[in-house]
UniProtKB/TrEMBL annotation:
PROSITE patterns: MOCF_BIOSYNTHESIS_1 (PS01078). Belongs to the MoaB/Mog family. Pathway: Cofactor biosynthesis; molybdopterin biosynthesis. Gene3D superfamilies: MoaB/Mog-like domain. The keyword Magnesium does not apply. PANTHER family: MOLYBDENUM COFACTOR BIOSYNTHESIS PROTEIN B (PTHR43232:SF2). The keyword Transcription regulation does not apply. The lineage of its organism: Bacteria, Pseudomonadati, Pseudomonadota, Alphaproteobacteria, Hyphomicrobiales. May be involved in the biosynthesis of molybdopterin. Keywords: Molybdenum cofactor biosynthesis. InterPro entries: MoaB, MoaB/Mog-like_dom_sf, MoaB/Mog_dom, MoaB_proteobac, MoCF_biosynth_CS. The gene is moaB. This is Molybdenum cofactor biosynthesis protein B. Residues 16-160 form the MoaB/Mog domain.
Length: 187
């Protein structure tokens, strides 16, 4: 059965949060705040936070900066994953992926379907790995951020979670880059 193995030590990660929106400000960024609250409550560190407009170049530039930073383990974006003309987060971020995480999109769809029914079809949530950094692109609603964190990310970003998790393989993500990540996590 899946669950936490208390014999393993928790490994805090450094997580950056990027809100993609033409209208949000630090004062009213509910989705970003939802993620920050959950990240810190889980014991992780908020490494960086930002807001950029729905623009491919702006989104890609910020994500590229963060994945180049050896101090950032995970990037989570919120917003820009829908179907309107301004929703361009997948177009901005997916070209950066060295490996796509198709199962994240599928699992997020299953979680969303349980909450919002067939409206879940309107998401283009995506995830992947780039430069030994995990990237998760979530919809821009607090509910979607809660669902993704509470049902998927809180477990997979916890070294104690069994039978497996993303943290335990972090030291091997960068074998081709020779950049250490998640010190303290061993396979």
């Amino acid at each position: 059965m899946p669950g936490l193995d208390d014999s393993r030590q928790f490994v805090p990660l450094k997580i950056a949060v990027l809100t993609v929106s033409d209208t949000r400000t630090p004062e009213d960024d509910k989705s970003g705040n939802t993620l920050v609250e959950r990240i810190t409550a889980a014991g992780h560190t908020l490494a960086a936070r930002g807001i950029v407009v729905d623009d491919v170049a702006a989104i890609r530039s910020r994500v590229e900066t963060w994945i180049a930073d050896p101090e950032i383990d995970v990037v989570i974006t919120t917003g820009g994953t829908g179907f309107t003309g301004r929703d361009v987060t997948p177009e901005a971020v997916e070209p950066l992926f060295e490996k796509r995480m198709d199962a994240f999109s599928s699992l997020f769809l299953l979680v969303s379907f349980q909450k919002i029914g067939t409206s879940a079809i309107q998401t283009r949530a995506t995830a992947g790995v780039a430069r030994a950094t995990y990237i998760f692109c979530l919809p821009g609603s607090p509910g979607a951020c809660k669902d993704a964190w509470d049902n998927i990310l809180v477990h997979q970003l916890d070294y104690r979670y069994r039978p497996c998790n993303f943290v335990e393989i972090m030291p091997r993500l960068d074998e081709h880059l020779r950049r250490p990540k998640a010190k303290g996590a061993t396979v």
